[in-house]
Amino acid sequence: MNFVRKICTIRSQTPSTNFSRKFRISTKNFESSQATQPQVQDDKFDFEDLKVLERQERRKPQIKPFIKDVFISVFNKELLAYPEILNKEESECLAARVSALEKVFYDKSKTKEERKMALNKTKMYAAPVSLTNNGLAMNHTESLQYLEVIANDVSLGQEISDHWVGLEAVRKGLEAEQYQQIIDDLTSGDRPLKLCIKEKISERITQADFRTYAELDNQGIWRVTGEKVANSDSINGYLLVLCCLEGDRMKAFLIHPDASGVEHNGVFVNFKQAPATPLSEISEEELARTLAISRLHAATLCRTALTRAVQSCVSYIRPRVFSGKPLSELCTIRSIIGDAFMDIYASESTDYFTTGLLDGYECPDAEMEVAMCRNFMVDHGISNMLKLLAIPSLEQEEECKQLLDDIRHLAARGENLGSINMFIALNGVQHAGQNMASEIKQMRNPLYHPLFIFKKVMQNRHQEKDDPKLNLFLAEHLHPSLRPPSEQLEYCVLRMRYACETLLGRHGADVASAFNELNRLAIAGTEILAMTAVLARASRSYCIGLRNAELEMKLAACFVETSKDKVRRLIKEIDDGEYLNLDHFRVQFGRKMLDANERLTEKPIAKSFW
Amino acid sequence: MAARILKTFLRARPSIITIKRFESNEKNVTLYDPFVNKPQKDKKTYLEAIKIFETRDTRRRGHVEFIYAALARMKEFGVHKDLEAYKALVDVLPKGRFIPTNIFQAEFMHYPKQQQCAVDLLEQMEDNGVMPDSEMEQMLLNIFGRRGIPLRKFWRMMYWMPKFKNLSPWLLPEKLPEDTLELAKMAIQRITSVDPEVKLDVWQTEEIEASLDKTWVVSAQSEVQKVLLAEQPSDIALVVKGPFSVYMKDQVVTYFTLIGKTRPEPKDDKDIDDVSDLQKPLGIPGFIGSTKIPSVKCSVHEQDDGTIVAVCATGTSSRDSLLSWIRLLEKYGNPLLSEIPVIFTLSAPSSDIAVQETQPAKQEETTKVNT
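Predict the joint structure of the above. Result:
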């Protein structure tokens, strides 16, 4: 396969454009940078339209999926202008609600009941519901703002996240009449919606992975039978249960409170012929998209947990001294706090960048971005948390335990890192496969296509040397001082196509079973999304003169530098293959451990003769 | 002195030297054998005999012949795998006397008969898998010096023997158990080690009233095998195959397998080069895997010639004991065996194939007569 990469063709580009770009003739760029220029839009008001009662969404026309295209090294430069979703009135309204919530949630003396009351007062239980149904018609950007405050109470944060996602699914899935009947009860806050999706891993080879099923009884009522892992302790509210039907189809069902046949057993909920209402108006894909928003919420919850850990550490460090100097002067401690700060900044940028995609465009395809937001924060959050909690050591035992348990619970809640990484990678590779199908076919049959192979070898000669030609010119869409980081981002983006090509060329249609390599691809993609969001945010902040914007610029440059190295290593490992990156051996060791019933290696002091 | 040695050396014809060397290497057995008259043949008496030889004559005449005789009798006394016995034999050789004092002695095999004797002793140790230790090295050094041939043999042994000692992936104890049941347990454990989940059971055939052979049964079956057995259609017979042999050092254990039907191979006729329509997951958070059960081969027990659903070794390896094994399997977690016919294809008994329709206990007597 490497032979294929030895040839490379020169991409068709206009020489004059390249010339002008090299020599910074700025007037030449006016076309490409037009997208990031402020655009004046004429709002048309139709005063006779009764829908003005509802919230008007200002969505731009549909764009191609952003991160999916990154997998084939196509970059939508328009998005380097960080999305701005809310207008002045909306922002003011949001700020008022958030400050009302902050008063309750930042005050540690408030009880859970008081907090719940505050949520009710601020209409949080009805937030995603339309204005005509006494809701707030909240969009995703606003939901993160609210959740950041609510997440200070971890259990309430999880509850409200499930409730919002479930409400949206119910709105889309139930018939209008049924929806109107239950919406008031649903939004009262007394019995919030809970999600029941995850199941136990099967323990027998004759068990399917997903076993909860629904069937119609004689009276035409759907009955749900199965067992689910419950995310929360109590099940007094409405339950949204995912079931399989005959013929491998999936459908969500709503189980009302106090329904018969529902039993709570520790972290599991058992359903025995429980009556349920089907969400028949929503397709499987739409259901997946709707429920996936819980990943975005999980990222926010994790980030808030990490922020709390940073605050806890800071309050521990400040009054303490070491060798007669303040503890805060220790470089190692400062760097740990700095790392956490950088990751929090990156996660925040990525989350709001993604909500910008979801709220700002028609028919957004941002499932991958949403999944990446969660994985980025969970992955970085756990490692940062461990480092942070090592600072107070065992002095603040209870608080540390709680913080660690919170992030562990949030990280494993619903799904784990590996399965999301697989989702990200398989989506990306599928998109790349669609775009590169003919190329891959030719690459995998080189003797039938000698000319193509020669071309390919020429084309990839820079990629082979790990030095792709930077021809995306991302720096034109960012603040000039971000030129070096933008080139690092460009390098990463350009390497992605090569990584996909290598993977598909190596495994063909069996790529779905190359888990280790797909995992790397997913992590690389996630880092690229974070790099993009961070650069866009820092550039915007600096351009519009936000407070401490210069710090943001430094944060961005530092983050991109670190991430670039990570992406570079990951893609190099993909390119190297399982023997050079030692995957083959690690897998063998793992297999030996799993197969052995005893200790594999002898003790270090063991002898075979005396 | 040196001139005289050189003169002798030059005068001697090489052919004579060679012949003489071989002559001196002949193993002559002494007429007096102290080991013959021992009433009880064990390690203690063996070591006593060596001690008597050592104390009888301070000059230890005939020690080479004695060692050869002792080596030949080791198996008889059951000490052929005992390092202590070999060390006692080496200790018979006098210390210091055979160490070459000049370059010629060192080069031309000083005391060849004695050296050859020590090499033969080490050879026997190697054949019996007895690893020498550093004390033995010291003894050989004291006897033959560091240029002696036995030392070279010893060092070669110490290079290779530790490497081979633990090469087998199935660790066995230094001394195998005498009890056949324990041995059978180890054997079955070894052949079922392919699946770490396999559970070993020891049953007595007395539990089955109709059994003729009263013996033990070591049966191994994992949960996966139970499920695979439960999936066996009742119209397709199970087959008991065997006896197969598994070697534990120098011991052989016979075992039998119960074979069920094989599930089909996974069919894969997709074009591996076509990546235009790759599968992607649905993406519902928390939903992974599939809603269907795979109906194709996927466990290690499913081999090309059948699915191994259980393995056993019995005390007698008789057909009756195997019949009891099937009954015991039925009793302990495989109720489906009462409905499925079992065919015995055993090479050991003269009648080769026997069909056993497994029916309730009453009819067992009659069916056993048929078999």
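Residues 14-24, 350-371 of chain B have pLDDT under 50 and may be disordered.
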